[in-house]
Amino acid sequence: MTRFLRFACPVLSVGLLAAGYFLVGLAWSALGLLIFGILWTVGLALRWDWFPPLALFAAFAAAAFGLLLDLSTGFLISGALFALASWDLAEFSLRLRKASPEDNLAALERRHLARLALLVLAGGGLSAFALTIHLTPSFEWIVVLMIFAVWGVGRMVDWLLKKE
Amino acid sequence: MNRTFLLALLIFLLLFFGLTILRPAIVALALPLVIYLLAGLWRAPEQVRLQAERSLSAERVKTGDEVTVTLTVSNHGSALEEVLLEDQVPDGLEVADGSARRLVSLPADGSVTWTYTLRGKRGYYGLKKVRATVGEHLGLARLEQDLPTDGQLFILPPVLRLRRVAIQPRRTRIFSGAIPARQGGSGVEFFDVREYQQGDSPRWINWRATARHPQDVFSNQFEQERAADVGLILDGRHRTNDFGNRPIFENSVLATAALADTFLNAGNRVGLLFYGRQITWTMPGYGKVQGERILHDLSRFEPGDSHNFNELYVPRHLFPSRSQLVLVSPLIPEDYDTLAALRMRGYHLLVVSPDPVAFEADGLAQTRTNLLARRIVQLQRSVLLRRLRGAGIHVVDWDTSQPFEKIAKLELEQRMVLPRGVLR
Predict the structure, then answer these.
(1) If I label B371, which of B17, B153, B287, B387 is the partner at 20 to 30 A Cα–Cα?
(2) In B227-319, at which residue ranges do the beta strands (DSSP E only) sit?
(3) Does residue B162 contact residue B414 with C-beta atoms inside 8 Å?
(4) A130 and B24: CB-CB below 8 Å?
(5) Helix H segments across B182-247?
(6) In degrees, to the nearest 5, what angle opens at C-alpha B204 toward C-alphas B207 and B211?
(7) Please, how many CA atoms are within 13 Å of residue B226, restricted to the half-sphere of its CB?
């Protein structure tokens, strides 16, 4: 199952992102994304372990740029979510490679996929919810939010790194 | 790149970008990543309390034999979602069957037990730790811990069975053995004729000598056979054993093990001196226990360079004077003086020398230059061996492409006949 999803997620991610671009007439950008998708799939097949993080960055950059151009939000956020799932599965399959034949890999895979599906759905749902409420905060609120976001992410990273 | 860092960086960039240009959609794009990061953070392992136990099917095995390793890892802390357990298998050992790794989930107070088999090259191996990498299912937060275990493995060199090794030191011990003692008495080999004495068996009467001297009766004497002190010296210097990755030292170890076994089986007292990075001395002893002790030590020896001695150094106080010394070494020309000095001190010397020239040439291309170089070095070696033989040292030149048993049968089973005029 993981092997299938490892290849399906990048295809879906790139497909959705390309569709988002293609539907507003940006055919060359869509083509570029499709070529990137092919490269991504080849990278997975050839086990280029450095490629999935790069692909995650690229997919989110493409989604953010699309949102900046007011392209279809649904296509772009879904594409980004599949990129996140693909990045996660690439790392998970790296960990599975270290398992021995007698390990209960089916149970590990089941638990992992269930949690990933839940997180992707929750993330997608929250994004969709955030986009539907249409809040228009004032400039002061934005500055406060920005400071809070930077501080929060910094603290979180610091805490995680210390924990490791 | 660290996954957590990568994720946080991406979140930070999206938030910064979205808030700077006032695009809520871009901020919303960061939300799935935030959820993912928080989920990993929430399930991160707090405290790991794992304990590992190891048992081996045998701690001492012969080269080529397999050892079954059984590992049990118990979790005395909270449940762990994903634990990668990796037994740290030292270099020189390989997993023959099964796997030295497990990827499991460990409930609180749960444990996992697995077995696998190892085999490897001659050596001593400490199996001291199991590495545990604990994480949650998303693999964001990980903790690495080395779990200490007890375990050691000696892979002993193979012991070739030789029929006998003929040595004749000038000094023997009082116990009966297999070494001719140059003294008349009970034995097998004819030694001398003397006047018949009361108690001599009539079967010992030498009728021919008695017939020549009708007034007296003569009886045969036989050469006493006794145990001897044998000091084995294994040369582990880098400069004599270093041929890239090809281990001529293994040949020396093989020969030493075979010789030690043969001398001990003949009832001799055998000690072993290893000369490598440091000098290691296995106290002399008799019998099977000593054989095991020597094999045990041989399994640990690795070539190295001594910081104290550039030349071959044999501490004479370790060996009784006039005893038998057996040096196993590829030899270099500088060794001549040391060996000649030992010979002058009255030691009987047997040198078993794996031929380093043939050994190295075996791995080289047969070019004209290589052939010429080989010829020159071979000549140098021949000169050295001839000088050693001239000094009364029994030298066995062992072409390592031939099995040691064959060489031993040809050159070690018969007593050495020294050239005329050489000190015995």
Answers:
(1) B387
(2) 229-235, 269-275, 279-285
(3) no
(4) yes
(5) 207-212, 238-241
(6) 15
(7) 18
State pLDDT tens for residues A37-61: 888 888 888 888 888 888 899 999 9
- Asked whether the beta carbons of residue A150 and residue B35 sit closer than 8 angstroms, the reply is no
pLDDT value at A146 more than 80? no
Q: How confident is the model at residue B67 (pLDDT cuts 50, 70, 90)?
A: very high
For B340-369, write each residue's pLDDT tens digit: 888 888 888 899 999 988 888 877 888 889
Q: Which of residues 61-100 of A touch B (CB under 8 A)?
A: 63-64, 67-68, 73, 76-77, 80-81, 84, 88, 91-92, 95-96, 98-100
Q: What is the dihedral of CA B378, B380, B381, B383, to 10 degrees?
A: 120
Residue type for position B362: D
**Option in A57, A100, A104 nearest B99 (CB):** A100
B205 DSSP β-pair partners: B219
Identity of residue B219:
S
Q: Are the Cβ atoms of A91 and B36 closer than 8 angstroms?
A: no
Q: What is the mean pLDDT of chain B?
A: 84
B103 at the A interface (CB within 8 A)?
Answer: yes
Structure tokens at A59: 């997919």
Token output for B57: 């099917």
What is the Cα–Cα distance from B254 to B235, expressed in whole angstroms?
A: 13
Phi–psi pair at B347, nearest 5 degrees:
-75, 145
Q: Does A124 contact chain B (CB < 8 Å)? A: yes
**Residue B329: which of B263, B245, B238, B235 has the closest Cα?**
B235
Structure tokens at A107: 């149970």
**Chain A residues touching residue B138 (CB < 8 angstroms):** 88, 115-116, 119
CB contact under 8 A, A53 and B6: yes
**Which one-letter amino acid corresponds to residue B124?**
Y
Nearest residue of A to residue B39 by CA position?
A119
Q: Is A22 on the interface with B (CB under 8 A)?
A: no
Model confidence pTM above 0.90: no
Q: What's the CA gap between B71 and B196, in Å, rounded? A: 73
Q: Is a pLDDT exceeding 90 seen at residue B224?
A: no
Nearest to B32 among A81, A96, A104 (CB): A81
User: What is the full DSSP assignment across B303-350?
Assistant: -B--SS-SS----GGGS-TT-EEEEE----TTHHHHHHHHHHTT-EEE
Q: What string of DSSP letters covers B121-160?
A: SSEEEE--EEEEEEE-TT--SEEEEEEE---EEEEEPP--
Q: How far apart are CA B421 and CA B392, in angstroms?
A: 9
- Residue B312 banded pLDDT, cuts 50, 70, 90: low
Most confident of B3-17, B193-207, B377-391: B377-391
Backbone angles phi, psi at B168, to 5 degrees: -145, 75
pLDDT of residue B387: 93
Q: CB distance from B35 to chain A under 8 Å?
A: yes
